[in-house]
C-alpha cells in the first residue's frame, strides 16, 4: 500500500502526525509526503494520485474534487 500525504505546512504536520501516528501508518503503508513549505496544486494531485492507494489531505491541500478524482487510475 502507498499513501500520499499532502500536508505541506510544517507546523500543521507536527500537530497532526505524532511519532506514534507515523509509526503506525508506516507499518502498513509506504508514505510519501508532498514537498514541505511549497503549495501542492490540483494539477500535482491529478498527476500523482494514480500512483497511490490512499491520500491524506489537510488545510491548504487541494480539494478532492470530481475533476481531481476523474484522473485515470
TrEMBL record:
Highest taxon of source: Bacteria
The protein, known as: Hydroxyacid dehydrogenase
Amino acid at each position: 500500500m502507498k499513501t500520499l500525504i499532502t500536508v505541506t505546512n510544517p507546523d500543521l504536520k507536527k500537530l497532526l502526525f505524532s511519532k506514534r501516528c507515523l509509526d503506525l501508518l508506516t507499518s502498513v503503508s509506504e508514505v510519501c509526503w508532498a514537498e514541505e513549505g511549497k503549495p501542492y496544486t490540483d494539477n500535482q494531485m491529478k498527476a500523482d494520485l494514480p500512483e497511490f492507494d490512499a491520500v491524506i489531505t489537510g488545510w491548504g491541500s487541494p480539494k478532492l474534487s470530481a475533476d481531481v478524482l476523474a484522473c485515470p487510475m
